UniProtKB/TrEMBL annotation:
Transmembrane segments: none annotated. It holds the Pfam family OsmC. PANTHER family: OSMOTICALLY INDUCIBLE FAMILY PROTEIN (PTHR42830). This is OsmC family peroxiredoxin. The lineage of its organism: Bacteria, Bacillati, Actinomycetota, Actinomycetes, Micrococcales.
């Protein structure tokens, strides 16, 4: 029987877009509150604040890693480790997310590279966050270590 689990985050923003700032809080886990700013979205060197794109990248990398590790285990080749990075591109002029580049490196005993690549690609399609982001171009580079 399907069961729905709801995770909650909240954001409080003060001021206009460019000079304003805010915080986003991980309500469900209570793991913390993070500072937000336009500068974090518009300048690659911004430190100390995060952006929706960085948070989306964290969610996508986590989801993909879990999906991939599960599919590898179902293939009787459970991973020793799975390390995923998600680079989320945001076009300021167009005001939109233009792509996500997933990069995964995994250590797995007893798997051929062709099977590794096939399962890595299948995991990209099966990952719930990837499914939620079907309007965005998602690429994958998978490396077997």
């Amino acid at each position: 029987m399907p069961r729905t689990v709801t995770s909650t985050a909240s954001t409080a923003w003060k001021g206009d877009l460019i000079s304003g700032s805010g915080t986003t809080t991980l309500e469900t886990s209570k793991l913390g509150t993070l500072d937000l700013s336009w500068k974090a979205r518009a300048e690659e060197s911004a430190q100390g604040t995060t952006s929706p794109e960085e948070l989306l990248g964290a969610a996508h990398a986590a989801c993909y890693s879990m999906q991939f590790s599960n599919m590898l285990a179902e293939n009787d080749t459970p991973p020793t480790s799975v390390d995923t990075t998600a680079d989320v591109s945001f076009n300021i002029g167009e005001g939109g997310i233009t792509g996500i580049a997933l990069s995964v490196t995994a250590s797995i005993d007893g798997i051929e590279d062709a099977d590794f690549q096939r399962i890595a690609d299948e995991a990209k399609s099966a990952c719930p966050v990837s499914k939620a982001l079907t309007g965005v171009d998602i690429t994958l580079t998978a490396t077997l270590s």
